[in-house]
Amino acid sequence: MFLGTLYNPYPVSSTLPTISTTTTSTNTGTSCPRNNTFTGPNAVDSPNYPNYYGSSIECEYHLNVASGNLVTLRFLEFYLKSTDYIDLYEGDNDSILLYRLHGTISSNTWFTTQYSNRMFVRFVSTAGFSNVSGWVLFFKAQQYGKFLIFMNLVIIF
After folding, report:
1. 97 vs 5, 42, 109, 139, 152, CA distance in Å?
2. Is residue 1 part of a domain?
3. In Å, what is the CA distance from 96 to each residue of 43, 70, 88, 127?
4. Distance CA 95, CA 79 (A)
5. Mean pLDDT across the stretch 80-86?
6. Structural domain total, the chain
7. pTM of the entire predicted model
8. Which residues contact 98 (CB under 8 A, 6 or more apart)?
9. Is residue 92 part of a domain?
10. CA neighbours within 13 Å on the CB side: how many for 69?
11. 1: which residues sit within 8 A by CB, 6+ positions away?
């Protein structure tokens, strides 16, 4: 069940089988990670996770998978205050917005690039305090041809 606000000009999310993952924090404190490039499969989390991530910060992450694949990700945890958001972009930069995510999102929702083996992620926290815990995402490679987009739904083969 999706409880947040989703902006998606290119809807390609779907529910895939549940994956068991173990995560360790990629950042500590309320600042962005110095190393913001990750190769999948991997897990990435918000600053200071699972504690409050801080206010007035903007973090950028580069997610990469093997050439010839798409990036697919899901949030294992996703709790943001209402004015904070995460943007997911196709490729290495912020030229093609795929999704804008707010609020709370189910861990059963998957988000996938359309054609690139790279995804650019921007996390924006606005001013003001909140006690929400932030987010953890898991991403991996999705082979081309393993799904079919039909009426804005992804059907997995």
Report:
1. 15, 22, 18, 18, 16
2. no
3. 23, 15, 9, 26
4. 26
5. 94
6. 1
7. 0.76
8. 8, 9, 10, 12, 88, 89, 90, 111, 113, 114, 119
9. yes
10. 16
11. 106, 108
